């Protein structure tokens, strides 16, 4: 009787081992050979836009996003330096000559030192400044071979006299050439009350 139960135990062990082995092989086989419903992005061909639009872009409609994330990183670093009043630390990020259009209509074209002087003057009477970044993107205008960074944010300016913060919604477009900022423009709107 003991021999029979030992025989049955061995058979059960072999059967369990075989089922386990077959299960592992099946999972491996089906896992490696299944067609994925979502192809990897590197295998996707570029999409050609063949639509007809009601308007023609005056600047460019041939945009690739994302383009150079390191440029977005540079621009966001400049934003953080401005927020922390580290204006002189910004200089290495800029080209020698820059163009700036601010939201009030002021235009600056000239050496970066002149722009940094404007930045210092802009925040000298503030107690603090805060940006809440909504989103950003790095983009390449393919037909112009231009690298842009766009940022959408909420800006809060706190005056030294302790009044309530002046709050704006803002959007900026930054143009970089050879990794240096050469241009930016700014749009602002008061936040709804």
Notes on the structure:
With 193 residues, the chain is of the alpha+beta class. It has a domain at 63-190: Roll (Nuclear Transport Factor 2, Chain: A). The protein is built from three helices and seven strands. A seven-stranded mixed sheet has the order 1-4-5-6-7-2-3. The longest helix has 32 residues, at 2-33. The termini are far apart. Mean pLDDT is 83; it is low at 20-41.
Structure, briefly:
With 193 residues, the protein is α+β, with helices and mostly antiparallel strands. The protein has three helices and seven strands.
Topology (SSEs and partners):
Elements: H1 2-33, E1 63-64, H2 69-83, E2 94-101, E3 107-111, H3 112-123, E4 126-141, E5 146-159, E6 166-177, E7 180-190
Parallel strand pairs: 2-7
Antiparallel strand pairs: 1-4, 2-3, 4-5, 5-6, 6-7
| Category by helix and strand content | alpha+beta
DSSP helical segment count: 3
Task: Name the CATH class of one domain.
Answer: Alpha Beta
Physical arrangement of strands within the biggest beta sheet: 1-4-5-6-7-2-3
- State the helical fraction: 25-40%
| Helix-strand pattern | HEHEEHEEEE
Oligomeric category: single chain
Q: Give Rg in angstroms.
A: 30 Å
Number of separate strands: 7
| N→C terminal distance | 90 Å
Report mean pLDDT, rounded to a whole number.
83
CATH fold label of one domain: Nuclear Transport Factor 2, Chain: A
Strand % is 35-45%
Largest sheet properties: 7 strands, mixed
Which architecture of one domain per CATH?
Roll
Name the poorly predicted regions. 20-41
**What does the overall shape look like?**
globular
């Amino acid at each position: 009787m003991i021999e029979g139960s030992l025989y049955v135990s061995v058979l059960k062990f072999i059967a369990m081992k075989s089922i386990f082995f077959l299960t592992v092989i099946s999972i491996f086989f089906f896992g490696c050979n299944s067609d994925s419903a979502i192809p990897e992005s590197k295998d996707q061909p570029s999409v050609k836009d063949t639509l007809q639009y009601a308007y023609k872009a005056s600047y460019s409609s041939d945009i690739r996003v994302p383009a150079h994330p390191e440029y977005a990183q540079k621009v966001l670093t400049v934003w953080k330096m401005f927020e922390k009043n580290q204006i002189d630390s910004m200089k290495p990020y800029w080209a020698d000559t820059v163009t700036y259009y601010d939201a009030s209509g002021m235009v600056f074209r000239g050496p970066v030192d002149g722009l940094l002087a404007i930045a210092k003057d802009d925040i000298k009477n503030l107690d603090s400044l805060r940006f809440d970044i909504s989103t950003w993107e790095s983009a390449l205008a393919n037909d112009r071979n231009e690298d842009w960074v766009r940022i959408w944010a909420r800006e809060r300016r706190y005056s030294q006299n302790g009044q309530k913060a002046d709050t704006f919604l803002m959007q900026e477009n930054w143009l970089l050439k050879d990794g240096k900022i050469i241009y930016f423009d700014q749009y602002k709107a008061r936040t709804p009350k």
